Amino acid sequence: MQTVIPINGWGDNVLDGLVYVLRSHAAAVQANPNLTQPIVIRANVGYCVTVHFENQIIGRSVGLHPDAIVRYDPKDSDGAHVGFNPNTTVTTGQQISYTWYADREGQGAISDPGNLDSQPPNHPTAALGLYGAIVVHPQGSDWSNQVSGAPLL
Questions:
Q1: What's the chain's average pLDDT?
Q2: Of 54, 68, 70, 66, which is closest to residue 20 (Cα–Cα)?
Q3: Which long-range contacts does 86-90 make (Cβ < 8 Å, 24+ apart)?
Q4: Cα–Cα distance measured from residue 29 to residue 112, given in angstroms and rounded to the nearest whole number
Q5: Residue % of the chain over a pLDDT of 90
Q6: Residue 119's pLDDT band (boundaries 50, 70, 90)?
Q7: Contact 63, 89 (CB under 8 A)
Q8: By the 8 A CB rule, do 53 and 16 touch?
Q9: Which of 8, 18, 92, 139 is most buried, by CB atoms within 10 Å?
């Protein structure tokens, strides 16, 4: 999603910021840019994670690429456009589903390697805020909402 990303309390912002955001939170983030934060996807060891991704960024093909910690088939779930692998990024308005397998504990970055060009006006999307993390917890872990205490699984 495209939005302003506040950097600090002195009014510094990334005016053309980009964020991965859950569809259910998009309107709130758009209305209040102070809610922007890198996305974190959590899983337990043994989980199969399916991410339904829709590109709402105008004028760019983007992807969602998990680094290091999960396994996936690069032919359909890499979130990149590199080498001889098929292009698994999507253009504005398109959707794709990525499937990742969490088979060991740890954490890794989520990024968009489909946009690594550093020449203006197409700065790398990570420099504009399009990044996050994936965290794989021990098998059997439980998570709860930090505000209500309700279980998240």
A1: 89
A2: 54
A3: 87/61, 87/114, 88/63, 89/55, 89/61, 89/62, 89/63, 89/114, 90/53, 90/54, 90/55, 90/61, 90/62, 90/63
A4: 20
A5: 54
A6: low
A7: yes
A8: no
A9: 18
